[in-house]
Amino acid sequence: MKNAVLVCAFASICFAASAYGQVGGPPQPDPITNISNELTRISRSVTTLSDRMGQFIERLDKAPGASLTEKQQKLIMGLQLLASAEQILASRQRFQIELVERQTTTRTRLAQIERDITPQGVDRSVTFEGTTRTDELRENRRNSLGSERTALQTLLQQINSTLADTNDAVREAQTLVTRLRRQYMPELERELLDR
Predict the structure, then answer these.
(1) N or C end of the chain: smaller count of CB under 10 Å?
(2) C-alpha dist (Å) from residue 73 to 5, 56, 58, 81
(3) Is residue 3 over pLDDT 60?
(4) How far apart are CA 171 and CA 101, in angstroms?
(5) Furthest C-alpha separation in the chain
(6) Does the reported pTM lie above 0.90?
(7) 186-195 pLDDT, tens per residue?
(8) What is the CA radius of gyration of the chain?
């Protein structure tokens, strides 16, 4: 029973650590860099947690006739909770990065449409059509760009709203992780020192 609980706890922590190990990529603009740095910090933190949990389990297994006390069982459950909270935080931050990228792409396309919808931009686009119906082509082009602009503005509003909600969710997850770390990491240190 003791070994099953320990293996389960250690597997949870290793899974979380491996999930965080997959975060990375090329350098990003400022907001994304900050989020990426935070994900890297979390990854290191989970690795440290995994190492400490491994040390704890190793020392417990080496002790003759050792069994888990109620305090140790609560500590293992707390560490599993911490690993889960850090995993949730990392997934929310990845979603936040995706939203920032979509927001940037949408803003860039909107800026391009604003340039293209000007009279000069519309004229440029129909110049090489090779037809005598240029007025009709200009109007069609203007209507097409106007429709796309409206759709992108609506999409941008939705992205901004979702991003604001996601930012709140990330802050809540960070608060939870910080609180759990402050609660369980000193207990783990004490257990390791007592052994």
Answers:
(1) N
(2) 8, 12, 15, 12
(3) no
(4) 19
(5) 95
(6) no
(7) 888 887 777 5
(8) 27
SS (H, E, C) the chain: CHHHHHHHHHHHHHHHHHHHHCCCCCCCCHHHHHHHHHHHHHHHHHHHHHHHHHHHHHHHHHCCCCCCCHHHHHHHHHHHHHHHHHHHHHHHHHHHHHHHHHHHHHHHHHHHHHHHCCHHHHHHHHHCCCCCCHHHHHHHHHHHHHHHHHHHHHHHHHHHHHHHHHHHHHHHHHHHHHHHHHHHHHHHHHHHHHC
- The model's confidence at residue 60, banded by pLDDT at 50, 70 and 90, is low
The 10 Å CB-count burial string (b at 16+, else e) for 146-172 is: eebbeebeeebeebeeebeebeebbee
Residue given tokens 């609980």 in the structure block = 5
Lowest average pLDDT, out of 23-37, 42-56, 63-77, goes to 23-37
CB under 8 Å to 55, separation ≥6 — which residues? 192
| Structural domains of the chain, with CATH | 2-194 (1.20.1270)
